[in-house]
Amino acid sequence: MVLKALPKPYTAVRDFYREFHYSLHLGAHRNIITTYDVAFETAGFYVFSQEYAPLGDLTSNVSETGIGELHSKRVAKQLASALEHLHARELVHRDVKLDNVLVLKSDFSRVKLCDFGETRRAGTLVRRRNEWLPYSPPEVLLTNTDETYKAETSHDVWQFGIVIFVCLTGCLPWQKAGSDDPRYVRYLHWHGSNGVLMPVRRPKLFKLLTSRAQRMFRKFLEPRPEKRPGGLADLAKFLEDRWLTRTSLDRQTDNNPEDEGLCPSMYSFHSSVEEKNQLLFTLTQYGIETTVDRSAKKDRIRDWIQASVITEGPEDEENEEEDKEEEEEEEERQKERKAMEGKRENRHKTDKETPTSTNRSASH
Question: Which residues are catalytic, by number?
Answer without folding.
Answer: 95
